[in-house]
Amino acid sequence: MTQQPQPPVPYLQTSDYRWTEAAFRLLEAGALTATVTARDNIASAVVDGVCPRCAHPFTDRRSLTAVTNGLGGTRAAPGGGPGLAEPVGAAEAVVLDVTCSCGVPHPTGETGAAADATAVTGCGVSFRIELAPEHDPVGGRP
Question: Could you tell me the superkingdom of the organism this chain comes from (predicted)?
Answer without folding.
Answer: Bacteria
